[in-house]
Write a structure and sequence with these properties.
metal-binding; 23 strands; binds protoporphyrin IX containing FE; heme binding; binds flavin mononucleotide; Cytochrome b2, mitochondrial; Flavocytochrome B2, Chain A, domain 1; alpha/beta; TIM Barrel
């Protein structure tokens, strides 16, 4: 029998330390990582943990498809692994039996593999999901810890919960009667042996002591919507309501698009393509991002993909066949650090589906221009240049999980910790160019000719006016979902000022056919009422981030589809009750903003899902 070509797994297994060399298998191929150990942006320690083994499951969700080709010298690509030759990894040390009153929850049914939670939590059937908040609640309980921490992170959250749950994952008895305390030491929530239903595993709802957590921007994004009230009109014919609209002439079934969020495979094995498909089904637009730059270091942002709905009416009259095509789209913005490649996301689109690309501008401008041109060739309709991330925010919750990961290993060194701490900022700096400035936009716009160009991350009216004066096509008022600068304003709160300033400068075409310069808003949107408030105040459409990836992480494409359907149902009901038969009837006089800058009004479902971060050490056992 001919000898099989490739690397024998037994030889791979022997290369399991710095001294013997470090070989790793990813997707059936063998790589020599010995010399790359100290260069690896994720640190040497995680690689050493998998030395001599197959690391595909760990590797996949956190790297873009081209991470290896872009970063590891070709001489270190050792070739295919001969199938079935790699010895099984040593069995993990069994966890000690839980003490009688231990409460466990699990990964069961969540999208991604590599569960770090013990068994138990069973997701409710999709029919029981009634709002976007529900997806978030299920995600919090069922996603693996790394995915949840990355998705839910704000800029400067304290990371105690990450620490607790990591410990929880490894050490069930830790959970014997775990009790949460607020920073004021007040008892909030007990887990006792008889608990087990979701609602018993709750987080403190009360807003913590001032200054105890730092992700004000994320919470304020949502809270601002609670301070705008409606002024409904009556006795209008609302037998049928139409909430479709258009963005630069691209029809969309509602004034909502799926915004760019990186690393979809942290939540679901199929990643962002679930968003693309669901957006197509519901005729909304998705923004995609390129692999080169992402929200995480080292990734390119791919923007957008849009969705289309095509209604074709064909009349055949004699020889002439007249085809009228009405395209209705749901937009999805693809993030830079997508787990799926840009082409995968574009390939997943339905014919005619409109897509937007979200772009991080690379220090290597040629690379960015190449991405833009490729996007144009592939039919992307708009470029959303992210301008609020010259450096990635320090997402402490996310970081804490990594430190905890280190603590589990004997091989952790102070140097590794330092590298890891520095990792994101260091790695990202070569992908997101902090020197980007107004003068660079002409070059990008030139490369994007034919596509609309929008700045994503505008946070005051002056910059919105500058964007319009430079001939750009719109702005997204956004603080990156509260993941960048803490105390960045809620986009909703600045919307009226931006609209007024743009109007005064003659930059806004009258509605409903605006089209000249569009204003988008994202951050904290969880209900159709939120969207209607933003539209009434002058937004063309609203981007939704976390709820989409939570619905994807918990129920896959079906979940995203349900989330979009929930929004549509909410639109229909709310527009009737508001007295607005069409989206163009949702006008400024339908909202009362007098409380917009007043103290926050809480929303219990949001607060319930919001995961409060506490300083190190604030945890207790009964
Ligand atoms: C085979 C060659 C590999 C290359 C070229 C590579 C490259 C990279 C790059 C460029 C980054 C920075 C981008 C990012 O943070 O996502 C990174 C981060 C990371 N890598 Fe790798 N990697 C490799 C293998 C692995 C393996 C085998 C593992 C785990 C078993 C791993 C775990 C990580 C972790 C945990 C991070 C940090 C991600 C974060 O900041 O959240 N890498 N890697
Ligand atoms: C997990 C995650 C990843 C993100 N990745 C990106 C990204 O790669 N590029 C980008 O411009 N914005 C990114 N964002 C910001 C979103 O596009 C959007 O501004 C924000 O999520 C809106 O807030 P929301 O999540 O409350 O809806 C990300 C947000 C999250 C939650």
């Amino acid at each position: 029998m001919a000898q099989q070509k490739g690397v024998d797994g037994k030889v791979v297994a022997e290369h399991n330390s710095r001294e013997k060399g470090v070989w790793i298998v990813i997707h059936g191929k063998v790589y020599d990582m010995t010399d790359f150990l100290d260069e690896h942006p994720g640190g040497a320690e995680i690689i050493l943990k998998y030395a001599g083994m197959d690391a595909t499951e760990e590797y996949d969700p956190i790297h873009p498809p081209d991470a290896i080709t872009d970063n590891l010298d070709p001489s270190k690509h050792l070739g295919p692994l001969i199938p079935n030759t790699l010895p099984a990894p040593p069995a993990p040390t069994p966890a000690p039996a839980p003490a009688p009153n231990t409460v466990t929850i699990s990964q069961k049914g969540a999208g991604a593999g590599n569960s770090d939670r013990p068994e138990e939590y069973v997701k409710p059937p999709l029919e029981e999901i009634l709002s976007l908040h529900d997806f978030e609640a299920v995600a919090r309980r069922s996603m693996n810890r790394r995915g949840w921490n990355y998705y839910s992170s704000s800029e400067t959250m304290k990371a105690e919960f990450g620490e607790i749950v990591t410990e929880f994952g490894r050490c069930p008895e830790f959970w014997q009667g775990l009790e949460w305390f607020s920073v004021r030491g007040q008892r909030r929530n007990k887990l006792t042996r008889n608990s087990g239903a979701d609602d018993e595993i709750t987080m403190p709802v009360e807003v913590p002591a001032e200054g105890s957590i730092a992700d004000h921007a994320q919470r304020e994004n949502h809270n601002a919507y609670h301070r705008v009230w409606f002024r409904p009109r009556i006795l209008r014919n609302v037998k049928s309501v139409d909430f479709s609209t258009s963005i630069w002439g691209h029809a969309t079934s509602m004034p909502v698009y799926i915004t760019a969020t990186a690393l979809g495979k942290l939540g679901h094995p199929e990643g962002e393509v679930c968003l693309t498909r669901a957006a197509a089904k519901h005729d909304i637009i998705q923004m995609t991002h390129d692999q080169g730059d992402s929200d995480l270091p080292d990734m390119a942002v791919i923007v957008v993909s849009v969705v289309e709905v095509v209604v074709v009416v064909v009349f055949v009259i004699e020889i002439v066949r007249m085809v009228i095509v009405v395209v209705v789209e749901v937009i999805v913005v693809i993030p830079t650090l997508a787990s799926c490649s840009f082409d995968e996301m574009v390939d997943a689109a339905s014919p005619g589906q409109v897509q937007f690309l979200q772009l991080y501008v690379n220090a290597d401008r040629a690379r960015t221009i190449k991405i833009i041109k490729h996007a144009k060739e592939r039919g992307v309709k708009a470029l959303f240049v992210t301008v609020d991330a010259p450096q990635l925010g320090r997402r402490e919750k996310d970081m804490r999980t990594k430190f905890e990961g280190n603590a589990s290993s004997q091989q952790t060194s102070g140097k590794d910790n330092f590298r890891r701490d520095q990792g994101a900022a260091r790695a990202i700096s070569s992908f997101i160019d902090p020197s980007l400035n107004w003068d660079d936009l002409a070059e990008l716009a030139d490369a994007a000719k034919g596509m609309k160009v929008v700045l994503k991350g505008v946070q005051c009216w002056e910059d919105a006016v500058m964007a319009a004066e430079r001939g750009l096509d719109g702005v997204v008022l956004s603080n990156h979902g509260g993941r960048q600068l803490d105390f960045a304003p809620s986009p909703l709160a600045i919307l009226p000022g931006v609209v007024a300033a743009l109007r005064a400068g003659g930059h806004l075409a009258p509605r409903p056919d605006r089209g000249k310069f569009e204003i988008f808003v994202d951050g904290g949107v969880r209900r159709a009422t939120d969207v209607l408030k933003a539209v009434a105040l002058g937004a063309t459409a609203v981007g939704i981030g976390r709820p989409m990836i939570y619905s994807m992480s918990t129920y896959g494409e079906e979940g995203v589809s349900k989330a979009l359907q929930i929004l549509k149902d909410e639109f229909e009901m709310n527009m009737r009750l508001l007295g607005a038969p069409t989206i163009h009837d949702v006008v400024p006089s339908m909202v009362d903003t007098s409380a917009l800058h007043a103290p926050a009004v809480g929303g219990t479902m949001y607060q319930e899902n919001y995961e409060q971060m506490m300083p190190v050490g604030v945890k207790a056992r009964l």
